[in-house]
């Protein structure tokens, strides 16, 4: 709640204005029944027309004034609620961008999307209602009771009984509904997760003809959500008839008891009319407050989920006074006895990487090969500091990356991820993603090296060709080449390629590697590969086995000294390719 109040502070001026306007609006609503009573007592019954006209015109003027204040209040309320939700969305989005892979996995992507959209929308809608109802309704309720007692104390027990019934009803509903709202939001996360998985994997679903199974998964998630929604809505459905019953009984009792008092000359007709109006105001104020009990529990749950994101501390701590890289920066990458285990791993779990030591130097290509799941991509994640090492150290340009500024570190590294991912826009906008100030010459060079020039030229729009979400309108090889070009546009001293040539044919692969060596030969290049043919000419090859270095050296040396490397090479290459000198 304290976190939420921080986001309300910038709008405290508007909230204060709303408070004043609502107080005036409530005051007008409370004095109007008094004028009605005076019209009946002093105008209608004695037949005094000037009193009717005077009080009627005053009531009309006060009504127009109340409408004016209501419009101003609505304007400020909307500005406040939308402003707070906008600030919350920005804060949550910024926080998520700072998350490491560990935090992303903890919440999961579907839940983070729901928290950024649906949960914040729930808070916005509730805030819009709460600003008005939680200020206006209590004033009306308390003021109505006081003004009603001024007109007749003998009828007070009726309103008191109705108030107690309303409070008891709202209390029961609140405690029944609140736990369900937490489950409701979790089930929305589940529906989003299933939908997202089905849509992103639609080709796999169709290929394996598992539409029926996926329909069942979605139906189960959807039915669970519908069941919870039904329970909550049915619970609150009881509120309307009960409130109507309380309202009608209260009206009937006031009229019946009031008629007896008028007959006994203990009250005036106008006072009974006024008390009836005050009774309705009190009941309606509790009705408005009860509406908040429909929205508040869900908003409380949503705010808790939002706070959970905002208050999550990342597993990676950055120093306030980072060590700058030297002016004469040399892109040397050094792993010194690095061991890594995931932050949420158990003590008895095996290390993902263990005692990894190697040095990658400028002008050289370092390749990493090994079976699936041996920790190859993890090496890149540690180098980019998506995770922190468990022990040992990683040094870039002689600086421990734990001491370096995050943005400066990433500025030194060009990265091509294992899964080629493009963003909605154009080819040109995707290439500029690495460096928005890149020159056309730099872009053209990157495109030439990545062997993307031919297929870009084949597009009628050229560099302005549309890129769909994720680059789905390009082939896998085209996406990989554009991802490589994007990294090269950055012109960083260190380039990381995470199995980035897997979708390329052998010819394109060879041309790309040759262009990289020719035009980017002064850079530090680290390549993860599955194909031995892609790394045979590497200056240094690391062979990983069970998270450890099983061999290190060039192709020729490893063929003599590393059995694992020889097995991989034998499974992929012919005898002539393995020993080209023969």
Helix and strand composition category: alpha/beta
Query: What's the number of extended β-strand segments?
Result: 12
Strand count, sense and barrel status of the largest sheet are: 6 strands, mixed
Assembly form of the protein: single chain
The side-by-side strand order for the widest beta sheet comes to: 6-9-10-3-11-12
Summarize the amount of helix as a percent range: 55-70%
Distance between the termini: 75 Å
Low-confidence stretches: none
The rounded Rg comes to: 36 Å
Task: Supply the number of helical segments.
Answer: 20
How much of the residues is beta strand, in percent?
A: 5-15%
What would you say this structure looks like, in words?
By secondary structure, this protein is α/β, with parallel strands linked by helices. The chain is 63% helix and 10% strand. It is built from 20 helices and 12 strands. The protein has helices at 2-8, 12-44, 49-98, 101-107, 109-151, 156-200, 202-207, 211-237, 239-263, 269-310, 376-383, 406-411, 427-431, 440-449, 453-457, 476-489, 506-519, 555-561, 563-572, 575-578, and strands spanning 333-340, 353-360, 365-370, 391-396, 399-400, 413-416, 425-426, 466-467, 494-498, 524-528, 540-545, 548-553. It has a 6-stranded mixed β-sheet, sandwiched between helices. Helix 5 packs antiparallel against helix 10 (269-310). The longest helix has 50 residues, at 49-98.
């Amino acid at each position: 709640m304290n976190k939420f109040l921080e986001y309300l502070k910038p709008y405290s001026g508007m909230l204060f204005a709303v408070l004043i306007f609502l107080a005036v609006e409530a005051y007008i609503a409370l004095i109007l029944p008094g004028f009605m009573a005076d019209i009946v007592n002093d105008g209608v019954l004695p037949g005094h027309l000037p009193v009717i006209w005077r009080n009627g015109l005053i009531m009309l003027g006060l009504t127009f004034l109340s409408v004016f204040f209501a419009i101003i209040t609505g304007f400020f309320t909307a500005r406040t609620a939308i402003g707070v939700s906008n600030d919350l969305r920005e804060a949550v989005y910024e926080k998520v961008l700072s998350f490491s892979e560990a935090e992303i996995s903890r919440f999961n992507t579907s839940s983070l999307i729901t928290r950024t959209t649906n949960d914040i929308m729930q808070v916005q809608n509730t805030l819009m209602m709460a600003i008005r109802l939680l200020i206006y309704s209590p004033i009306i309720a308390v003021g109505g009771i006081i003004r009603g007692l001024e007109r007749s104390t003998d009828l007070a027990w009726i309103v008191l009984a109705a108030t107690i019934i309303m409070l008891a009803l709202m209390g029961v509903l609140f405690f029944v509904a609140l736990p369900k709202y937490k489950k409701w939001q979790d089930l929305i996360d589940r529906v989003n997760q299933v939908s997202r998985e089905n849509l992103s994997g639609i080709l796999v679903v169709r290929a394996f003809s598992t539409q029926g199974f996926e329909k069942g998964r979605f139906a189960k998630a959807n039915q669970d959500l519908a069941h919870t929604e039904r329970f909550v809505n049915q619970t609150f459905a009881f509120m309307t008839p009960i409130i109507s019953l309380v309202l009608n009984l209260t009206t009937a009792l006031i009229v019946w008891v009031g008629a007896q008092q008028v007959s006994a000359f203990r009250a005036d007709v106008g006072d009974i009319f006024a008390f009836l109006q005050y009774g309705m105001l009190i009941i309606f104020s509790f009705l408005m407050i009860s509406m908040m009990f429909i929205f508040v529990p869900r908003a409380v749950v949503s705010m808790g989920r939002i706070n959970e994101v905002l208050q999550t501390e990342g597993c990676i701590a950055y120093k306030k006074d980072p060590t700058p890289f030297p002016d004469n920066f040399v892109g040397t990458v050094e792993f010194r006895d690095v061991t890594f285990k995931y932050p949420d791993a158990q003590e008895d779990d095996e290390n993902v990487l263990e005692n990894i030591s190697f040095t990658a130097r400028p002008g050289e290509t370092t390749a990493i090969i090994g079976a699936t799941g041996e920790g190859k991509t993890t090496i890149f994640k540690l180098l980019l500091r998506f995770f922190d090492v468990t022990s040992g150290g990683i040094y870039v340009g002689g600086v421990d990356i734990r001491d370096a500024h995050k943005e400066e570190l990433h500025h030194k590294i060009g990265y091509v991820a294992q899964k080629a991912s493009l963003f909605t826009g154009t080819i040109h906008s995707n290439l500029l993603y690495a460096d928005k100030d890149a020159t056309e010459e730099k872009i053209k060079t990157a495109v030439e090296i990545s062997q993307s020039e031919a297929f870009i030229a084949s597009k009628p729009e050229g560099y302005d060709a549309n890129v769909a979400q994720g680059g789905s309108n390009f082939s896998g090889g085209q996406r990989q080449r554009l991802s490589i070009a994007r990294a090269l546009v950055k012109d960083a001293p260190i380039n990381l390629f995470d199995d980035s040539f897997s979708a390329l044919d052998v010819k394109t692969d060879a041309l790309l590697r040759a262009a990289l060596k020719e035009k980017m030969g002064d850079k530090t290049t680290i390549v993860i590969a599955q194909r031995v043919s892609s790394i045979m000419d590497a200056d240094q090859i690391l062979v990983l086995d069970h998270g450890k270095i099983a061999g290190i050296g060039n192709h020729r040396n490893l063929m003599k000294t590393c059995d694992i490397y020889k097995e991989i090479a034998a499974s992929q290459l012919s005898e002539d390719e393995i020993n080209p000198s023969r």
